[in-house]
Amino acid sequence: AVCYTGDVADPNRGMYDLEYYLNFTRELKEQGIHVLAIKDMAGLLKPEAATMLVSAIRDEHPDLPIHVHTHDTAGTGVASMLACAKAGADAVDAAMDAMSGLTSQPSLGALVASTANSDLNTGMTLQEVSQVNEYWEECRGLYAPFESGQKSGSADVYIHEMPGGQYTNLLYQSSQLGLTGQWAHVKNAYAVANRLLGDIIKVTPSSKVAGDLAQFIVANNLTEQEVIDQAESLSFPKSVIEYF
């Protein structure tokens, strides 16, 4: 798998440009992969970037199956997965409507309906998806007391780049650490932590390092420059120390 971060459509984004991903794919191909998974763990793959990335890989590797995984944190997941499909992806991840959106995957029903009567027709009907979705609507109601409380999409994921699988966990952990009401500060600190760590690929276990450092920054009321200036004397979380 190639883990996606940054924005290949932004020429100012830094090292994670289109050539980075093409080189990574070439290396994987040399290792003998049979399928390429593009793991967009934070839902950062915008429609324009999706078109650029998948098209470039498809042009260079016409026979390599491409499978795209994403999260719908910002609410652009359906548009991005449609862009991937049109650009040549063979499979994209989605979730049943009742379980989709937010930090989950984009809606399967929306993708099925959007590709009907086109060359990308999935072979499923919206009626079939809706019948199965009724079951998951009932299930979700049973587990509602355990949900994170997240009410809507959050486009600021393009700023802090927090993985979807970490977002709700870190939200809960922050409240347990006494940071209730400071979630916005934690998200901002996550972006700071990412810069301090060197703009890393944030996926387990590196995402935990960024999350631990973000909470540490907020809990100690530190600025980015103060972390740098006081690095020798600060008692950083164990995960951060082990990372370095």
TrEMBL record:
Transmembrane region(s): none
Any matching Pfam family: PYC_OADA
Entry-linked PROSITE patterns: PYR_CT
One annotated GO molecular function: pyruvate carboxylase activity
Domain Pyruvate carboxyltransferase: 1-130
BP GO terms, sorted: gluconeogenesis
Coiled coil spans: none
GO cellular component: cytoplasm
Name by which UniProt lists this protein: Pyruvate carboxyltransferase domain-containing protein
Species of origin: Odontella aurita
Lineage of source species: Eukaryota, Sar, Stramenopiles, Ochrophyta, Bacillariophyta
